[in-house]
Amino acid sequence: MPQILPAHDPQAINLAAEALRRGELIVMPTDTVYGVAAWPWEDAFVSRLYEAKGRPEEKAIPLLVGSAAQLGQVTQAMPAGAQRLAQHFWPGPLTLVVPKHPSLPPAVSPYPTVGVRMPNHPDALALLRLTGPLAVTSANRSGHPPARTAAEAAAQLGDAVAIILDAGTAP
After folding, report:
1. Could you tell me if residue 26 is inside a domain?
2. Cis peptide before 91, with omega less than 30 degrees from 0?
3. Domain range spanning residue 133?
């Protein structure tokens, strides 16, 4: 079973970041539901996310960012309209579809675009500011309800994840 650690603990955030860089999956809180995260710069790491969820590979994985400064890592051309929306609604639960940066592997998105958002959750932002952008989708098996607690995420994803950052019940 995964380690369940308090999301507000800086040491837990560091352990989660190290696990991600090694290619392990982690579960993190967001402003909507718990998300399962992978290091987005390696196809094999993102493929583990698809496998853990039982998610079809033609469904792209959104990216979460910890600041507007990280957008240059996920897109080379942020459309003006998307910039205005991000300035107004981020951090928050708005996902913008933007042209995908060529450095992102195909496993993140097999399309020329990628979804990106900045969550409004202090623990998620702390992790993202440490790691940079992450590939994150709801922490559940495909077709099942999203996890709203660390225990629900552990029950659905089990040993597929190394660490769960527990921030209580998701909003």
Report:
1. yes
2. yes
3. 3-166
